[in-house]
């Protein structure tokens, strides 16, 4: 029996984890994925990152997003254009299912629903004494609510907005527990450090029904597209339990809302966004505020007021002066005790000056004294940059909390999570999460580095929840000598993908994606996952380009890491194949961009292209290539330019030297066509086919080059930068100088991030992914773009589109909402074959039963599976008497997959009343 062999591996910043597996040989038959067998872990050690490398990576994450948006002619992100983009999105028509001219598309969620992304806030609902109701927020994903302790989450913020959630608070007053608030706007962090970030806020949102529905507070109506308000970057919200006043710790200010007006309680007029603030409030109403030591003098440090209105005083003047971010935590069992954790200005480097990057002090209000506990902070045996000693990435991840029933039991978070059961005793903090140990970067079991929230369950103080760059996790015994964790990312869909890829084999449901700070994930029932949305954590670090090959029976996967490394997982053991610069002695790997770019020809999987910044490398034997066997085709300087490559695309079909070509898009706006790329000796023979209306400047990012699946003359080209012309179409792409038409129409203000051209039954649809959702047009020269999947993809950034023409499958990667799969004029990946067309379902909508009428050979048994639109299997079995019991299904739309014992397969949708 054919099998997939899965070799589990875990990679983080220094140890690369790869999965190695074998799969059935490519044949013309539909894919019949079988069992998965997990093997022992394999580790590939990488060099430890220096302090400079870590700082560079943080900067490059931000610069990557900034360059996607900035107007290349002004050097600024045009706020007017971003406002127009938002307005255009609101006004855009939604895809209509009764439009007979448009190809109809079915969307299903492809997850991951078992992994999470960056999560800065989580609150346990004090009105549910079971502790099972919680609300959490993703920085680029919205607000999620659970009533079963994280067994499942439901998104409760609208998909028609981008909710960049940073803080959540519940009104603590008796009788007001149904009132909640969340704040938006991440000021500093991954993807959020430069002007024009996607993560500006939209003010403060309020719920009065326990977090089920939310509305923006009019007095905080910050515009997410413009950094012009105190409510664009909200670090912390608190409700005063004695008055009900809402306090907002915004950048460099503490603001108070009395139900009518906002008042600045403490303020600094610096324009720097790096002005971290924090706030905690005692049950008696005393307010403490913490202000960063970065660009915020003269108010840096910790302040207090008995009522939060008057009598403010700074309490740290004779004890310490923070050099960066300050975070606070009260001891619930003794609220005279305030713990203060802050950046101390040390930038630790194992190669030069290893040191703890924060200090910890405790203020006792009863005697107005500070105790210095900085000597308790962890510096374990060994050293690894960004891991040990205690590291906080400049304050990006920094949090402290206290066990509710023990004023001396303290937990802290930086890149790792730590605890100390008695801070007054001997010893230091011990590691409980993040990285597994101080000497490397393998992840702690069932946990994730970069800690942003540490929350005790008030009804069971042995339970601790964490919010991190990996979502939400829980331990049921914080007292254990070795703390174990449970992953609570169950439909907490918050992944941020840069690139996604789909198995080129028709019928296969295997997908792969490279995500920000969450490496590479793989999903698919054919890969051994239990459903379409569960993924496997394939590799760590920052995900980049991805590809799946059918060039070999083992089905090689190609994955990469920041700034150049690329690996192949079979047929030999996991192998680095990063091209080497042969001009060096000895040869050394080329660098690529931060988000490493390569492209596997989807119809000719032996051909792989690699971007070494502005240099093009090629192999015609991707399955066995080594670092020293690539062909160097030269740089764009041979074409008179200096573009670094940003996207590749290859013409469809079996390779033909006379008709096949490679398209290359750069960061200076140029587009090149290389004919017969498999045999080309140099990039110098490429044609510059840049649209005349494109902006030629740096940066002007080409983000999409979509080639029609049956007509190589039709190409859709897209650009991401605001203030430039962004969508072009040509119908003579193979000409020496193609004629381009500007087709942005009603998306003229949008940042376009990806492109695809899909076709079914002779009808073509053009698709573009934008910074605010997915759009389509059947004729973009004459017909406006309409928004696709508004209740699923919503306004998420659509960063990557990958199409498989053989069965009309389109994979959509988003930055914050995971990935989705569209089937063009079909459902769930089955083509509209004669068997599918023969299936008749009635009554539809159904109530207790659904009758099934279909053509089949006499005596052939029919098995069935019922899926919801998340891709989850709701029921399965053998059809009896041509009838299906639907009484246990809840109301909604479902997909019914049928398969006869003689091999026919088909799918139909139905509705349950």
Automatic annotation (TrEMBL):
Record's keyword terms, sorted: Signal
InterPro entries associated with the record:
Secre_tail (IPR026444), Sialidase_sf (IPR036278), WD40/YVTN_repeat-like_dom_sf (IPR015943)
Using the record, list the residue span of the signal peptide; answer none if the entry has no such feature. Answer: 1-22
Entry annotated with the keyword Amino-acid biosynthesis: no
Give the Pfam families listed for this entry: Por_Secre_tail
The record places domain Secretion system C-terminal sorting at 841-905
| Domain of life from the UniProt record | Bacteria
**Protein name per the record:** T9SS type A sorting domain-containing protein
């Amino acid at each position: 029996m054919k099998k997939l062999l899965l070799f589990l591996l875990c990679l983080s910043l220094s140890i690369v984890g790869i999965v190695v597996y074998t799969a059935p040989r490519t044949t013309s038959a539909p894919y019949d994925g079988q069992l998965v067998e997990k093997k022992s872990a394999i580790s590939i050690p990488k060099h430890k990152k220096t302090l400079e490398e870590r700082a560079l990576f943080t900067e490059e994450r931000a610069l990557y997003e900034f360059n996607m948006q900035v107007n290349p002619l002004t050097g600024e992100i045009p706020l007017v254009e971003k406002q127009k983009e938002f307005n255009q999105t609101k006004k855009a028509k939604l895809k209509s299912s009764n439009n007979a001219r448009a190809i109809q598309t079915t969307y299903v969620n492809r997850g991951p629903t078992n992994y999470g992304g960056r999560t800065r806030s989580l609150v346990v609902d004090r009105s549910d004494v079971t502790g099972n109701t919680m609300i959490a927020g993703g920085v680029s994903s919205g607000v999620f609510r659970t009533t079963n302790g994280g067994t499942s989450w439901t998104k409760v913020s609208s998909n028609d907005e981008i909710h960049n959630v940073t803080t959540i608070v519940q009104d603590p007053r008796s009788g007001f527990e149904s009132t909640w608030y969340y704040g938006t706007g991440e000021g500093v962090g991954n993807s959020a450090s430069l002007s024009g970030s996607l993560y500006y806020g939209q003010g403060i949102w309020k719920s009065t029904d326990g977090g089920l529905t939310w509305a923006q507070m009019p007095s905080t109506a910050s515009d997410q597209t413009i950094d012009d308000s105190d409510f664009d970057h909200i670090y912390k919200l608190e409700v005063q339990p004695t008055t009900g006043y809402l306090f907002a710790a915004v950048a460099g200010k503490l603001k108070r809302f009395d139900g009518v007006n906002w008042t600045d309680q403490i303020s600094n007029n610096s324009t720097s966004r790096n002005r971290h603030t924090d706030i905690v409030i005692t049950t008696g109403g005393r307010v403490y505020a913490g202000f960063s030591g970065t660009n915020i003098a003269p108010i840096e440090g910790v302040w207090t007021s008995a009522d939060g209105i008057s009598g403010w005083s700074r309490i740290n003047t004779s004890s310490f002066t923070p050099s960066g971010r300050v975070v606070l935590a009260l001891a619930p069992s003794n609220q005279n005790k305030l713990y203060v954790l802050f950046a101390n200005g040390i930038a630790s480097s194992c190669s030069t000056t290893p040191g703890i990057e924060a200090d910890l002090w405790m203020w006792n209000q009863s005697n107005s004294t500070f105790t210095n506990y900085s000597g308790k902070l962890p510096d374990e045996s060994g050293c690894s940059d960004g891991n040990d000693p205690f590291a906080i990435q400049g304050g990006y991840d920094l949090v402290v909390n206290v066990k509710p029933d023990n004023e001396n039991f303290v937990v802290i978070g930086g890149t790792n999570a730590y605890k100390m059961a008695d801070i007054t005793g001997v010893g230091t903090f011990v590691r409980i999460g993040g990285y597994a140990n101080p000497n490397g970067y393998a992840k702690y079991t069932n946990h994730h580095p970069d800690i942003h929230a540490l929350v005790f369950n008030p009804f069971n103080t042995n339970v601790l929840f964490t919010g991190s760059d990996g979502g939400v996790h829980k331990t049921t015994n914080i007292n254990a000598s070795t703390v174990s964790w449970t992953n609570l990312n169950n439909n907490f869909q918050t992944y941020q993908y840069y690139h996604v890829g789909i198995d080129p084999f028709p019928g296969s449901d295997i997908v792969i994606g490279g995500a920000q700070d969450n490496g590479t994930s793989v999903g698919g029932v054919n890969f051994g996952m239990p459903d379409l949305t569960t993924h496997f954590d394939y590799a760590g670090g920052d995900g980049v380009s991805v590809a799946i090959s059918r060039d070999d029976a083992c089905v090689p996967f190609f994955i990469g890491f920041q700034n150049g490394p690329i690996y192949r997982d079979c047929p030999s053991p996991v192998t680095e194949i990063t091209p080497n610069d042969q001009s060096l002695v000895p040869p050394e790997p080329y660098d690529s961009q931060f988000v490493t770019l390569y492209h596997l020809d989807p119809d000719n999987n032996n051909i792989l292209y690699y971007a070494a910044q502005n240099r093009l490398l090629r192999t015609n034997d991707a399955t066995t290539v080594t670092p020293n066997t690539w062909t160097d085709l030269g740089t764009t300087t041979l074409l008179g330019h200096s573009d670094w490559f940003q996207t590749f695309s290859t013409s469809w079909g079996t390779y033909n030297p006379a008709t096949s070509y490679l398209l290359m898009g750069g960061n200076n706006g140029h587009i090149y066509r290389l004919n017969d790329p498999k045999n080309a000796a140099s990039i110098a023979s490429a044609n510059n086919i840049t649209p005349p209306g494109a902006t030629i400047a740096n940066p002007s990012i080409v983000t999409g080059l979509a080639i029609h699946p049956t007509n190589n003359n039709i190409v859709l080209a897209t650009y991401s930068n605001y203030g430039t012309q962004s969508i072009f179409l040509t119908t003579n792409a193979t000409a020496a100088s193609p004629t381009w038409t500007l087709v942005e129409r009603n998306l003229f203000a949008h940042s376009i991030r990806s492109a695809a051209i899909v076709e079914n039954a002779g009808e073509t649809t053009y698709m573009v992914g934008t910074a605010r959702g997915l759009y389509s047009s059947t004729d973009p020269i004459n017909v406006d773009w309409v928004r696709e999947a508004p209740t699923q993809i919503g306004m998420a950034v659509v960063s990557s589109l990958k199409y498989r023409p053989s069965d009309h499958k389109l994979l959509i990667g988003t930055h914050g909402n995971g990935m989705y799969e569209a089937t063009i004029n079909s459902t769930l990946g089955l083509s509209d074959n004669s068997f599918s067309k023969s299936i008749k379902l009635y009554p539809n909508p159904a109530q207790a039963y659904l009758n099934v009428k279909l053509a089949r050979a006499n005596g052939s048994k029919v098995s069935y599976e019922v899926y919801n639109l998340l891709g989850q299997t709701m029921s399965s079995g053998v059809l009896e008497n041509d009838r299906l019991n639907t009484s246990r299904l809840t109301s909604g739309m479902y997909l019914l997959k049928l398969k006869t014992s003689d091999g026919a397969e088909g799918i139909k949708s139905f509705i349950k009343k």
